[in-house]
Amino acid sequence: MTITVTFIRHGESEDNLKGIWAGWKDAPLSDLGRKQAAAVAEFFLDTKFDTIYASPLLRANTTAQAIHSRQQAPFPSFIVTPNIREQHFGVAEGTSFTYIPTEHDTLDELFAQGIYPVLYHRDEKFPGAESLNDLALRAEKAIMECVIPHLQSEEDAHIAMVSHGLCISELVAALLRLDPDSRRDTSYKGLLNTAWTRATVSIKEVANFSEGVPPLDVQVTHVNVAGHLDDIAPFTSDSTSENSEARKFFGGGGALAQVVLSDERQKM
To answer: Positive or negative CA dihedral for 27, 29, 30, 36?
Structure first.
Protein backbone atom coordinates (compact mmCIF):
# COMPACT_ATOMS: atom_id res chain seq x y z
CA MET A 1 0.00 0.00 0.00
CA THR A 2 1.40 3.38 -1.06
CA ILE A 3 0.31 6.92 -0.29
CA THR A 4 1.23 9.53 -2.89
CA VAL A 5 1.51 13.07 -1.54
CA THR A 6 1.57 15.98 -3.99
CA PHE A 7 2.56 19.30 -2.45
CA ILE A 8 1.40 22.33 -4.46
CA ARG A 9 2.44 25.91 -3.81
CA HIS A 10 -0.19 28.62 -4.23
CA GLY A 11 -0.40 30.98 -7.19
CA GLU A 12 1.17 34.41 -7.08
CA SER A 13 -0.52 36.71 -4.54
CA GLU A 14 -0.92 40.46 -4.67
CA ASP A 15 1.54 40.71 -1.79
CA ASN A 16 4.17 38.77 -3.76
CA LEU A 17 4.36 41.85 -6.00
CA LYS A 18 5.06 44.24 -3.15
CA GLY A 19 8.26 42.79 -1.68
CA ILE A 20 6.81 42.61 1.83
CA TRP A 21 6.80 39.96 4.53
CA ALA A 22 3.55 38.09 4.00
CA GLY A 23 3.16 34.90 5.98
CA TRP A 24 -0.25 35.02 7.64
CA LYS A 25 -1.09 38.34 5.95
CA ASP A 26 -4.05 37.27 3.83
CA ALA A 27 -3.84 38.73 0.32
CA PRO A 28 -5.77 37.28 -2.65
CA LEU A 29 -4.20 35.97 -5.83
CA SER A 30 -2.93 38.48 -8.38
CA ASP A 31 -4.18 38.40 -11.97
CA LEU A 32 -1.17 36.25 -12.84
CA GLY A 33 -1.83 34.07 -9.78
CA ARG A 34 -5.36 33.31 -10.96
CA LYS A 35 -3.99 32.26 -14.36
CA GLN A 36 -1.43 30.05 -12.62
CA ALA A 37 -4.14 28.45 -10.46
CA ALA A 38 -6.26 27.75 -13.53
CA ALA A 39 -3.24 26.24 -15.31
CA VAL A 40 -2.31 23.90 -12.45
CA ALA A 41 -5.96 22.88 -12.08
CA GLU A 42 -6.10 22.02 -15.76
CA PHE A 43 -2.83 20.09 -15.47
CA PHE A 44 -4.26 17.91 -12.68
CA LEU A 45 -7.57 17.39 -14.50
CA ASP A 46 -6.83 13.69 -15.09
CA THR A 47 -5.06 13.13 -11.75
CA LYS A 48 -7.44 11.56 -9.27
CA PHE A 49 -6.92 13.02 -5.79
CA ASP A 50 -8.69 11.26 -2.92
CA THR A 51 -8.31 14.21 -0.54
CA ILE A 52 -7.21 17.82 -1.01
CA TYR A 53 -5.84 19.57 2.08
CA ALA A 54 -5.70 23.36 1.88
CA SER A 55 -4.29 26.22 3.88
CA PRO A 56 -7.01 28.65 5.02
CA LEU A 57 -5.06 31.61 3.61
CA LEU A 58 -6.69 33.03 0.48
CA ARG A 59 -3.79 32.55 -1.94
CA ALA A 60 -3.52 28.83 -1.18
CA ASN A 61 -7.21 28.17 -0.55
CA THR A 62 -8.22 29.75 -3.86
CA THR A 63 -5.58 27.68 -5.66
CA ALA A 64 -6.86 24.53 -3.95
CA GLN A 65 -10.47 25.37 -4.85
CA ALA A 66 -9.44 25.77 -8.49
CA ILE A 67 -7.85 22.32 -8.46
CA HIS A 68 -10.85 20.78 -6.71
CA SER A 69 -13.27 22.31 -9.22
CA ARG A 70 -11.51 20.55 -12.12
CA GLN A 71 -11.50 17.10 -10.53
CA GLN A 72 -13.78 14.40 -11.87
CA ALA A 73 -16.64 12.86 -9.89
CA PRO A 74 -16.60 11.43 -7.31
CA PHE A 75 -14.92 14.60 -6.08
CA PRO A 76 -12.14 14.42 -3.50
CA SER A 77 -12.70 15.47 0.09
CA PHE A 78 -11.68 19.11 0.67
CA ILE A 79 -10.19 19.78 4.11
CA VAL A 80 -8.90 23.12 5.37
CA THR A 81 -6.20 22.96 8.04
CA PRO A 82 -4.32 25.87 9.66
CA ASN A 83 -1.30 23.63 10.20
CA ILE A 84 -0.25 24.15 6.58
CA ARG A 85 -0.31 27.94 6.69
CA GLU A 86 2.85 29.80 5.79
CA GLN A 87 5.44 30.76 8.41
CA HIS A 88 4.15 33.58 10.62
CA PHE A 89 6.37 36.70 10.51
CA GLY A 90 4.93 38.46 13.57
CA VAL A 91 5.45 42.24 13.69
CA ALA A 92 7.20 42.09 10.32
CA GLU A 93 3.97 41.11 8.53
CA GLY A 94 3.24 43.71 5.87
CA THR A 95 6.60 45.48 6.23
CA SER A 96 9.27 45.78 3.57
CA PHE A 97 11.33 42.70 2.82
CA THR A 98 15.01 43.69 2.92
CA TYR A 99 18.46 42.19 2.60
CA ILE A 100 20.81 44.21 4.78
CA PRO A 101 24.30 43.22 5.97
CA THR A 102 24.16 43.10 9.76
CA GLU A 103 27.86 43.18 10.66
CA HIS A 104 27.42 46.39 12.69
CA ASP A 105 23.86 45.99 13.96
CA THR A 106 22.29 43.35 16.15
CA LEU A 107 18.91 42.01 15.12
CA ASP A 108 17.28 43.73 18.09
CA GLU A 109 18.75 47.06 16.93
CA LEU A 110 17.42 46.50 13.43
CA PHE A 111 13.99 45.52 14.76
CA ALA A 112 13.91 48.69 16.89
CA GLN A 113 14.42 50.69 13.68
CA GLY A 114 11.57 48.85 11.97
CA ILE A 115 14.00 46.96 9.72
CA TYR A 116 13.22 43.29 9.17
CA PRO A 117 15.92 41.62 7.06
CA VAL A 118 16.29 38.05 5.85
CA LEU A 119 17.07 35.74 8.80
CA TYR A 120 19.51 32.92 8.13
CA HIS A 121 19.43 30.81 11.28
CA ARG A 122 16.62 28.40 11.98
CA ASP A 123 16.04 29.61 15.54
CA GLU A 124 15.88 33.32 14.64
CA LYS A 125 12.54 35.08 14.38
CA PHE A 126 10.90 38.48 14.43
CA PRO A 127 8.99 39.53 17.57
CA GLY A 128 5.71 37.63 17.79
CA ALA A 129 6.69 35.37 14.89
CA GLU A 130 7.56 31.76 14.19
CA SER A 131 11.12 30.62 13.57
CA LEU A 132 11.84 27.94 10.99
CA ASN A 133 12.18 25.51 13.89
CA ASP A 134 8.69 26.50 15.05
CA LEU A 135 7.40 25.98 11.52
CA ALA A 136 9.07 22.56 11.42
CA LEU A 137 7.17 21.49 14.55
CA ARG A 138 3.91 22.65 12.99
CA ALA A 139 4.77 20.78 9.80
CA GLU A 140 5.25 17.59 11.82
CA LYS A 141 1.76 18.05 13.26
CA ALA A 142 0.40 18.53 9.73
CA ILE A 143 2.00 15.29 8.53
CA MET A 144 0.49 13.45 11.49
CA GLU A 145 -2.90 15.03 10.73
CA CYS A 146 -2.98 14.74 6.93
CA VAL A 147 -0.71 11.88 5.84
CA ILE A 148 -0.34 9.27 8.58
CA PRO A 149 -4.09 8.46 8.89
CA HIS A 150 -4.13 7.37 5.24
CA LEU A 151 -1.55 4.70 6.06
CA GLN A 152 -4.15 2.96 8.21
CA SER A 153 -6.14 2.12 5.10
CA GLU A 154 -5.43 -0.99 3.07
CA GLU A 155 -5.84 0.93 -0.20
CA ASP A 156 -3.50 3.20 -2.11
CA ALA A 157 -4.37 6.88 -1.92
CA HIS A 158 -3.28 10.13 -3.54
CA ILE A 159 -3.57 13.32 -1.51
CA ALA A 160 -2.78 16.92 -2.39
CA MET A 161 -1.52 19.49 0.11
CA VAL A 162 -1.95 23.03 -1.23
CA SER A 163 0.24 25.25 0.88
CA HIS A 164 3.07 27.78 0.81
CA GLY A 165 6.73 27.79 -0.16
CA LEU A 166 8.41 27.71 3.23
CA CYS A 167 5.76 25.48 4.74
CA ILE A 168 6.06 22.93 1.93
CA SER A 169 9.83 22.80 2.38
CA GLU A 170 9.28 21.92 6.05
CA LEU A 171 6.47 19.46 5.26
CA VAL A 172 8.75 17.51 2.93
CA ALA A 173 11.54 17.56 5.52
CA ALA A 174 9.14 16.39 8.26
CA LEU A 175 8.00 13.51 6.08
CA LEU A 176 11.58 12.49 5.29
CA ARG A 177 12.44 12.43 9.00
CA LEU A 178 10.02 9.53 9.37
CA ASP A 179 12.24 7.47 7.06
CA PRO A 180 15.42 6.47 8.92
CA ASP A 181 17.17 5.82 5.60
CA SER A 182 16.22 9.06 3.82
CA ARG A 183 18.63 11.69 2.58
CA ARG A 184 18.61 14.92 4.58
CA ASP A 185 21.04 16.96 2.44
CA THR A 186 18.56 18.57 0.02
CA SER A 187 16.78 21.90 0.40
CA TYR A 188 13.24 22.16 -0.91
CA LYS A 189 13.08 25.95 -0.72
CA GLY A 190 12.68 28.24 -3.71
CA LEU A 191 9.49 26.66 -5.06
CA LEU A 192 7.80 28.46 -7.94
CA ASN A 193 4.19 29.59 -7.71
CA THR A 194 1.90 26.57 -8.33
CA ALA A 195 4.91 24.28 -8.80
CA TRP A 196 4.36 20.80 -7.41
CA THR A 197 6.57 18.41 -5.49
CA ARG A 198 5.69 14.76 -4.92
CA ALA A 199 6.62 11.99 -2.51
CA THR A 200 5.49 8.39 -2.16
CA VAL A 201 5.04 6.96 1.33
CA SER A 202 4.79 3.35 2.45
CA ILE A 203 5.46 1.40 5.65
CA LYS A 204 8.79 -0.36 5.94
CA GLU A 205 8.66 -4.02 6.85
CA VAL A 206 9.78 -4.03 10.49
CA ALA A 207 9.29 -7.26 12.43
CA ASN A 208 9.46 -5.86 15.96
CA PHE A 209 7.58 -2.60 15.56
CA SER A 210 4.78 -2.26 18.15
CA GLU A 211 3.36 1.28 18.57
CA GLY A 212 3.37 4.86 17.29
CA VAL A 213 4.26 5.71 13.70
CA PRO A 214 6.16 2.85 12.05
CA PRO A 215 9.36 3.59 10.10
CA LEU A 216 8.36 4.77 6.65
CA ASP A 217 9.83 4.45 3.19
CA VAL A 218 9.66 7.97 1.73
CA GLN A 219 10.74 8.65 -1.83
CA VAL A 220 10.71 12.19 -3.24
CA THR A 221 9.97 11.63 -6.92
CA HIS A 222 9.36 15.16 -8.26
CA VAL A 223 10.54 18.60 -7.10
CA ASN A 224 9.39 22.08 -8.18
CA VAL A 225 7.65 20.93 -11.39
CA ALA A 226 6.07 23.85 -13.23
CA GLY A 227 5.73 22.84 -16.87
CA HIS A 228 2.06 23.84 -16.77
CA LEU A 229 3.23 27.48 -16.66
CA ASP A 230 5.16 27.32 -19.94
CA ASP A 231 2.45 29.18 -21.88
CA ILE A 232 1.88 31.85 -19.21
CA ALA A 233 3.96 35.02 -19.34
CA PRO A 234 5.72 35.16 -15.97
CA PHE A 235 5.89 38.93 -15.52
CA THR A 236 3.74 41.83 -16.68
CA SER A 237 5.35 44.33 -19.03
CA ASP A 238 4.61 47.29 -16.75
CA SER A 239 6.39 45.84 -13.70
CA THR A 240 8.92 48.19 -12.14
CA SER A 241 12.43 46.90 -11.63
CA GLU A 242 11.79 46.65 -7.88
CA ASN A 243 8.50 44.80 -8.31
CA SER A 244 10.03 42.52 -10.92
CA GLU A 245 12.76 41.41 -8.49
CA ALA A 246 10.20 40.98 -5.70
CA ARG A 247 8.06 38.93 -8.06
CA LYS A 248 11.02 36.70 -8.94
CA PHE A 249 12.12 36.28 -5.32
CA PHE A 250 8.72 35.35 -3.90
CA GLY A 251 8.18 33.12 -6.93
CA GLY A 252 11.34 31.17 -6.14
CA GLY A 253 13.88 32.94 -8.38
CA GLY A 254 15.86 36.15 -8.69
CA ALA A 255 19.26 37.25 -7.47
CA LEU A 256 18.24 37.63 -3.81
CA ALA A 257 16.63 34.22 -3.78
CA GLN A 258 19.82 32.64 -5.07
CA VAL A 259 21.80 34.28 -2.25
CA VAL A 260 19.36 32.93 0.34
CA LEU A 261 19.23 29.46 -1.19
CA SER A 262 23.00 29.23 -1.53
CA ASP A 263 23.50 30.26 2.09
CA GLU A 264 20.85 27.78 3.28
CA ARG A 265 22.39 24.86 1.36
CA GLN A 266 25.81 25.59 2.80
CA LYS A 267 24.35 25.09 6.28
CA MET A 268 22.83 21.66 5.49
So the answer is: positive
Phi-psi region of 194 (alpha: psi -120 to 50; beta: other; left: phi over 0): left
What are the C-alpha distances in Å from 102 to residues 22, 90, 98, 106, 119? 22, 20, 11, 7, 10
Is the peptide bond between 74 and the residue preceding it cis, with omega within 30 degrees of 0? Answer: yes
Q: Which amino acid is at 251?
A: G
Dump pLDDT digits (tens) for 171-195. Answer: 999 999 999 999 888 888 889 999 9
Distance CA 92, CA 15 (A): 13
Cα separation, 238 vs 204, whole angstroms:
53
Q: For strand 51-54 and strand 77-80, is the pairing parallel, antiparallel, or unpaired?
A: parallel
pLDDT in tens, 77-119: 999 999 999 999 999 999 988 877 656 678 998 999 999 998 8
Return d(Cα 5, Cα 7) in angstroms, integer.
6
- Residue 118's nearest CA partner among 267, 268, 9, 264 is 264
Pairing state of beta strands 196-203 and 51-54?
unpaired
